[in-house]
From TrEMBL:
The protein's required cofactors: Mo-molybdopterin
This protein's name: Protein-methionine-sulfoxide reductase catalytic subunit MsrP
InterPro entries according to UniProt: MsrP (IPR022867), OxRdtase_Mopterin-bd_dom (IPR000572), OxRdtase_Mopterin-bd_sf (IPR036374)
EC number: 1.8.5.-
Cofactor note: Binds 1 Mo-molybdopterin (Mo-MPT) cofactor per subunit.
């Protein structure tokens, strides 16, 4: 198998990047996006969103809507141990290797990403296979806002107000057959739109399309969420428009973006980072401060947007990212050191 011994995200590992570099990178993105007052955005207007970045530009993507009707679900808020990560950070500090491996690449390279028409296929071991278009994604399910922690395997984290619906609602609509054991997810494969899929260097060595998977019990847990928006708006392209998974008790790489296929199956599906380096990235990928990555500690994390731009403040990582009460039972009897 062709893979880098050191995945390229290690090279760009956020904790290795100096805050000054981050700062300069962000200034560069904003400049390239035609936003003149970059300094103002970073200081007094720290909550500026993607709409503000585009201003009144004529080429503003039409799918960026702020009218998503939704209720608020605060059921999981007690887990949160910090303030919301400013929207300006959530949409400019991303991992989406289809658009490049640097944190600033997705915001820079994904703005022309076209999500209409979109087709999400739900098939495999289901009674009613589904094909949903872009509008179906927004309209077919009761949308709710939930704030969840996102903990990247690279040891940084964010607190993000997502809008979406439980994955179980979609699976129940399709009707899962009894013998199904797993759910497989696949990202769009369209190299013309996603430059990282054309170049192994730009795409970090991943074999595209990016794929992920969950056990059926994980998929049916209420915490497994399909997100179509954040901060009250439809998802910006760099965050996985038009629909992405959010599994907050697992490392961020499980939260696959821009999904075109959800396949119900009776075996454990392959997953992209596990295919690339199986000794470093397991199938389960539960956040676990007691199991270090072979090349760095998972005991602590850096909360993006907290402690000031040049702060190196770290906080303790929680088992299951703090969601143990909801999910620890799923792993009863398993050795989480070997099943990492
Ligand atoms: N999905 C796809 N298709 N491609 C990716 O490169 N990166 C993953 C995940 N989903 C990735 C992906 C990783 S490593 C993380 S940490 C999260 O997306 C980051 O989500 P965010 O950019 O919205 O914070």
């Amino acid at each position: 198998m062709h893979f880098h011994k050191r995945p390229s995200w290690d090279k760009f590992k956020d904790c290795d990047v100096t805050p000054e570099q981050v700062f300069n990178d962000r200034r560069r993105i904003l400049k390239q996006m035609g936003f003149v007052g970059a300094g103002a955005l970073l200081s007094s207007n720290a909550n500026a969103g993607i709409f503000d970045l585009f201003g009144d530009k004529k080429d503003k993507p039409q799918f960026l809507r702020s009218d998503l009707p939704h209720s608020k679900n605060t059921q999981y808020d007690s887990v949160l141990n910090g303030v919301l990560t400013p929207e300006s950070k959530v949409i400019t500090h991303n991992n989406f290797y289809e658009f490049g491996t640097a944190k600033s690449d997705p915001a820079e390279n994904a703005q022309g990403f076209n999500v209409e028409p979109w087709k999400l296929v739900v098939d495999g071991l289901v009674d009613n296979p589904l094909t949903l278009d872009y509008d179906d994604l927004m309209k077919l399910f009761a949308l709710e806002e939930r704030t969840h922690l996102l903990r990247c395997v690279e040891a940084w984290s964010m607190v993000i107000p997502w809008i979406g619906f439980p994955l179980a609602a979609l699976l129940n609509k399709a009707g899962v057959k009894n013998k199904a054991t797993h759910v497989a997810f696949e990202t769009l494969f369209e190299p013309e739109q996603m430059p990282g899929q054309k170049s192994r260097l730009m795409g970090g060595g991943i074999h595209y399309p990016y794929v992920e998977g969950l056990t059926m019990a994980e998929a049916m847990n209420d915490l497994s969420f399909l997100s179509v928006g954040l901060y009250g708006k439809t998802l910006p392209p760099q965050n996985g428009a038009p629909i992405r998974l959010v599994v907050p008790w697992k490392y961020g790489f499980k939260s696959i973006k821009s999904i075109v296929r959800i396949r119900v199956t009776d075996r454990q599906p392959p997953t992209s980072w596990n295919q690339l380096a199986s000794n470093e990235y397991g199938f389960y990928a539960n956040v676990n401060p007691q199991v270090d990555h072979p090349r760095w500690s998972q005991a602590t994390e850096r909360r993006i947007g907290e402690g000031g731009l040049f702060s190196a403040k770290r906080i303790k990582t929680q088992a299951f990212n703090g969601y143990g009460e909801q999910v620890a039972d799923l792993y009863k009897g398993m050795d989480l050191k070997s099943d990492f």
